[in-house]
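thought: user wants a sequence for this fold. calling inverse folding tool.
action: design(structure=
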């Protein structure tokens, strides 16, 4: 897409986000590239305008500019070598140290679909890891028991399956926790889960 085509579409009321989603690019990427070319966004007129005093570029292709490879020479930040380091596979020029491990890498921006997929993966991981870790994490159990409110207690008689009662007895003995505290937490979690 040519820069003039993008600006024309924006001037005719199209939304930057919509245009960028069709191009599989981030609006931020396009805005940064427009600024680097010399355009600024005028808030009062709500449009992109040429801001430099020299002649506007001859309608460059925006996608080619975004995918343009990184320059082959990069300044070294090392205090020992302030000369330019060649990152291509060609021979190192005289006076420069060999940097065979350096390669130029082009980092393309994530598409909106990729960003949404990553957000979904992170959200599911957080939800899954929280619930699984809380069940199996003994330290979390002890911490929760420590934070129980010390309120007035009431006695309840319950009837449960013998196998559950035996597993409960084994668990509280093995973990060295008070049965009342474990029942309190289990009932609290149950009520929170099914009350909403």
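)
observation: tool returned 196 residues.
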């Amino acid at each position: 897409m040519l820069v003039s085509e993008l600006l024309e579409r924006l001037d005719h009321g199209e939304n930057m986000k919509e245009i960028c989603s069709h191009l599989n690019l981030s609006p931020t990427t396009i805005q940064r590239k427009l600024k680097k070319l010399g355009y600024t966004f005028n808030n009062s007129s709500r449009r992109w305008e040429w801001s430099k005093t020299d002649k506007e570029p001859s309608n460059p292709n925006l996608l080619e500019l975004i995918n343009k490879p990184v320059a082959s020479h990069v300044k070294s930040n090392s205090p020992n070598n302030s000369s330019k380091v060649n990152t291509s596979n060609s021979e190192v020029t005289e006076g420069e140290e060999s940097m065979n491990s350096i390669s130029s890498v082009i980092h393309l921006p994530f598409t909106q679909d990729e960003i949404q997929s990553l957000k979904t993966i992170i959200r599911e991981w957080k939800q899954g890891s929280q619930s699984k870790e809380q069940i199996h994490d003994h330290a979390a159990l002890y911490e929760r028991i420590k934070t129980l409110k010390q309120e007035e207690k009431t006695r309840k008689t319950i009837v449960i399956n013998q196998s559950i009662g035996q597993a409960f007895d084994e668990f509280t003995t093995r973990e060295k926790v008070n049965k009342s505290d474990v029942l309190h937490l289990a009932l609290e979690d149950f009520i929170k889960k099914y009350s909403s």
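thought: summarizing for user.
answer: Here is the designed sequence. The helical segments are 3-11, 16-23, 27-37, 62-66, 112-136, 138-146, 162-175, 179-195.
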